[in-house]
Amino acid sequence: METLYHQTNKQIQEVQSLMGRLENTDRQSVHLLENDLQARIDQIFSHLERMEILAGKEPPNRRQNVKLRVDQLKYDVQHLQTALRNFQHRRYSRGTQDREREELMSRTFTTNDADTSIPIDETLQLNSNLNNAHRGMDDLLGSGSSILTGLRDQRDTLKGTHKKMLDVANMLGLSNTVMRLIEKRATQDKFVMIGGMLLTCVVIFLVVKYLG
């Protein structure tokens, strides 16, 4: 169990290091790096499934601590998966916009008078502005999606941690007063998380409404 844990933790650190190279990788090689990252992430998820099975076989006095460590690894790799998907979405959007721009620039225009160049320049400028606005909205939506996913992951992690803390508290024989304080704090954290998710949704809606 310990060997698999350290191996998986090392793989997560390697993926984090490779993620930092995505933005600086050329177009010809970025697909290979993305495929390599996805394969590594899939392998980490496979290791986590095995670790969850092994954690259930641990002695009762170690089981809760082992499960918490596995949950932390799962939380880390879920964030890496979300970051990779957001990068792929932004890259695809930029590629589509670049192709549209190239098609527009290479299009042949027929002119009937000397003033035609003015509307063409205005059209190109308008198209450039729209592309910039779309790129900004894509980045904002990607960031909002990442935030919401992170909040959902934190909620799931807090739920699991809360349940495990209660189990540990029962095992240690803590007083009812301490357990009520733990439950009260968990409820407060839940409301704060929900408020953050709602606020993020409102901001994204307003940006889409006024920039769209």
Structure overview:
There is one protein chain. By secondary structure, the protein is mainly alpha-helical. Helices cover 88% and strands 0% of the residues. The chain contains five helices and no strands. 5% of the residues are buried. Its main location: endoplasmic reticulum. It is a single-pass type IV membrane protein. InterPro entries: GOSR2/Membrin/Bos1, SNARE, v-SNARE_N_sf.
Question: What key phrases describe this protein's structure?
Answer:
single chain; 212 residues; flat
Kindly report the average pLDDT value: 77
Helix proportion: over 70%
Number of DSSP helices? Answer: 5
Biggest beta-sheet profile:
none
Principal-axes shape call = flat
What distance lies between the first and last C-alpha atoms, to the nearest angstrom? 52 Å
GO molecular function: SNAP receptor activity; SNARE binding
Organism: Oncorhynchus kisutch (Coho salmon)
Family: Belongs to the GOSR2 family.
Subcellular location: Endoplasmic reticulum membrane; Golgi apparatus, cis-Golgi network membrane
List the helices and strands and how they pair.
Layout: H1 2-19, H2 27-55, H3 60-106, H4 117-172, H5 176-211
Helix pairs in contact: 1-2, 1-3, 2-3, 3-4, 4-5
In short:
The chain is mostly helical and 212 residues long. The protein is 88% helix and 0% strand. It has helices spanning 2-19, 27-55, 60-106, 117-172, 176-211.
